[in-house]
Amino acid sequence: MEMRKFLLALLALVLYSLILNNGAVEASHKKYMNLQSVRAVNVNHLHRTGFHFQPKKHWINDPNGPMFYKGLYHLFYQYNPKGAVWGNIVWAHSISTDMINWKKLEPAIYPSKPFDKFGCWSGSVTILPGNRPIILYTGIIDPNNTQVQNYAVPANPSDPYLREWIKPDNNPLVVAVVDVNKTAFRDPTTAWWGRDGHWRMLVGGKRKHRGIAYLYRSRDFMKWTKSQHPIHTSANTGMWECPDFYPVSLQGENGLDTSVIEKNSKHVLKVSLDVTRFDYYTLGTYYPDKDRYVPDNTTVDGWSGLRYDYGNFYASKTFFDSGKNRRILWGWANESDTTADDVAKGWAGIQTIPRKVWLDTNGKQLVQWPIEELETLRGQKVGLSNQKLNMGDHVEIKGITAAQADVVVTFSLSSLDKAEPFDPSWHNAQDLCSQKGSTIQGGVGPFGLLTLASEKLEEYTPVFFRVFKAQDKHVVLMCSDATSSSFKKGLYKPSFAGFVNVDLSDKKLSLRSLIDHSVVESYGAGGKTCITSRVYPTLAVFNKAHLYAFNNGSEPVTIDNLNAWSMNNPVMNK
Ligand SMILES: *[C@@H]1O[C@H](CO)[C@@H](O)[C@H](O)[C@H]1NC(C)=O
Ligand SMILES: *[C@@H]1O[C@H](CO)[C@@H](O)[C@H](O)[C@H]1NC(C)=O
Ligand SMILES: *[C@@H]1O[C@H](CO)[C@@H](O)[C@H](O)[C@H]1NC(C)=O
Ligand SMILES: *[C@@H]1O[C@H](CO)[C@@H](O)[C@H](O)[C@H]1NC(C)=O
Ligand SMILES: *[C@H]1O[C@@H](CO)[C@H](O)[C@@H](O)[C@@H]1NC(C)=O
Question: Boundaries of each Glycosyl hydrolase family 32 N-terminal domain copy (predicted)?
C-alpha cells in the first residue's frame, strides 16, 4: 500500500466525516466507503492489548458462533480482511484449547453465493444430535441490504479444526415474509430443541420503533416456519440485533445446554439495541407450549434495564461449554478513538475476556466472572493488606506492569453513616457518575483504583464505588470514568457507570480490574456489575503506567486485601 493512496484515503475520510456530521447519522455502522479496502501500512502497537482477543490487524466486530467441539474452542468473528474500518465482512475463525491462547485459521465464511454476495453477517452455531455443528448466519443478497438467513456445515467433520465450511445450494433457509421488514431481519440465534420434536430459533427485527425477536420452528432444520407471534417484542426499543436466548439454573454456577427447559431454571433474553448500542437482558419464564417469553416483573424490559456491561460492550453471544459445564459470554468492545486513528493504527476492535455467566442467588440478575483459564497468564505478583486510606489518600501498587495487569481488591468500611443522601430522581448511573467523579469528595467513597495513571495523575482512569443512603437501603454506584484518561484529542471519554445491587451488611465491596493498555475491564462485587472502558493514554503507557488505590470520601476505607499480577502475553492469532 503506497503512502499516496493512504493519504488520499485519509483526506477522503476527513471530508466524509464532515458530510456525515452535518447529515443524519444512522445508529448502525457508519460506512466509510473509501477506507474499506485500505490495508494497514503498519500496525501501531502503542495501544494494542496484550491478552485480549485481537487479530493481527484490521477491523473486527461481533463475536459469532462460539462453540466447544471435540476438545477445542472455536471463535468466529466479523472481520474486515482489507482494512481498519467496517466493510468486506467475513467470518474470521480462530481455535483454542483454553480461550486464552488462539490460533488463527482461514476465514470460514465469506461472500460468494447469490444468497450472501453482499455480506456475511452475524449468526450462531447449533450442535445437532450426533455432534454435528451447523452455522446459521445472515446473508445480504442485494445492494439494498436485503437480509436472509443461511446455513453452513463443515466440509470435513472429522477435522477437529473445522477449517472448511460449505454453504449448500438450498440456501437461503429463511427469507422475510411480507409483514417482516427485510432490511431489519438478522442475527439468528443458536437453535433449541423442543419436546414436540421441533427446533426453534430467533431472528432479530423491528416494526416501526418496536423491537422484535421473531420465532421460527423446524422439524428438520431445513424447512423453517415463522410462528404467528414473536417470542417477545418491546415498544420503542428500535432494532433488536444479536438476540440471545438461553436457560440459567436457579442453583449454582453451572451452565445449561440451550435446549434445557426445566422447572429449576429461568430464561435470559438478551438483545443488542442498535439505537443505544448497548446490550440489555431480562430474566423471565419461557412457556414452550405457547412459545412465549415473559420477563419477570423484577426486571425492566427496555433501555433502562439490566446490562451485561455498563461500558463498551456490544453484540454479545453466549454458548454452553459442555467441556466444563458452564455458559460463556463473548462481547465486542469497539474503539473510542476516531476512525482516522483506527486507519492510522491499522486495527480496530477487541473481544472482551470470555466470562462465565450464571444467575445471582437473588434470582434477579446475572453474575459474570473472567474464565478461570485467564489466571494462567498471571506472572509477577504483589499484595497488600490492612491498609487504611483516609480522605485524599492514594497508595501506589508497585512492582507489577501496571499497563497489563489483573488486580483484585476487597475494601472494607467501618461505618456507612456518612453515606450521602440518594435523590430518587437519579435513575441514570452514567449521569450521576459524570457529576460525581473521583475528585468530587464524598462521605462513603469515592474509593477504588486509579488505573492507567501517569505518575503525577495528569492522566488516569478511575474505577470506583460511591455509597449513598436512600430511604430504606443503601445505593452503590460503580464508575469507570474515562474523562481524564488521555490528553489525546477527539476521543470518546464517557463516565460509564452502573448501580450495584449488593448487600452491604458486611460493609465490604470487592473490585477486579483487568488492565490491558487501552482497555480497563472491571467486575464489581464479584461480577454483579461489570464495566469496560476503552482509553488511550499518552503518558501512562507501557512502563510509565501506574496503578493506585485511593479514597476521596470522608469515611476512612481499609484495603482488606489486594493482589495484583503482571499479565503475560498469550499466543494471539499468530
Ligand atoms: C433497490 O431499491 C431501489 C429503490 O427502492 C429499487 O429501484 C431497486 O430495484 C432495488 N434493487 C434491488 C436489487 O432490489
Ligand atoms: C425497515 O428497516 C429499515 C432499516 O432500519 C428502515 O430504514 C425502514 O424505514 C424500515 N421500513 C419500514 C417499512 O418500516
Ligand atoms: C411479581 O410476580 C410475583 C410472582 O411471580 C408476584 O408474587 C408479585 O406480586 C409480582 N409483583 C408485582 C409488583 O406485580
Ligand atoms: C481527591 O479530591 C481532591 C479534591 O477534589 C482532588 O484534588 C484529588 O485529586 C482527588 N484524589 C484522587 C486520587 O482522585
Ligand atoms: C463505539 O464507539 C463509540 C465512539 O465512536 C460510539 O459512540 C459507540 O456507539 C460505538 N459502539 C458500538 C457498539 O458501535
Answer: 52-370
Determine the pLDDT at residue 28.
62
Task: Centre a 10 Å sphere on the Cβ of residue 249 and count the other Cβ atoms it contains.
Answer: 17
Q: Is 62 a catalytic residue?
A: yes
> Using a 6 Å CB cutoff, which residues line ligand 2?
181, 183-184, 208, 239
Predicted local distance difference test score (pLDDT) of residue 4: 53
| Closest atom of ligand 5 relative to the 313 alpha carbon | 13
Global pTM value:
0.95
Report which bound ligand comes closest to the CA of 78.
Answer: 5
Q: What are phi and psi of 166, to 5 degrees?
A: -110, 135
> Residue 159: its pLDDT value, please?
95
Positions in the chain short of pLDDT 70: 1-28
- DSSP type of residue 255: B
| Digit-coded pLDDT (tens) for 170-224 | 999 999 999 999 999 999 999 999 999 999 999 999 999 999 999 999 999 999 9
Residue type, 201: M
Site to probe by mutation for ligand 1, drawn from 144, 146, 147, 183 as the one with most ligand atoms within 8 Å of Cβ, is: 144
Residue 208 CA to ligand 2 centre (angstroms)? 7
Task: Please state the atom number of ligand 1 nearest to the C-alpha of residue 142.
Answer: 13
Return d(Cα 570, Cα 102) in angstroms, integer. Answer: 8
Spatial separation of the C-alpha atoms in residues 285 and 233, rounded to whole Å: 14
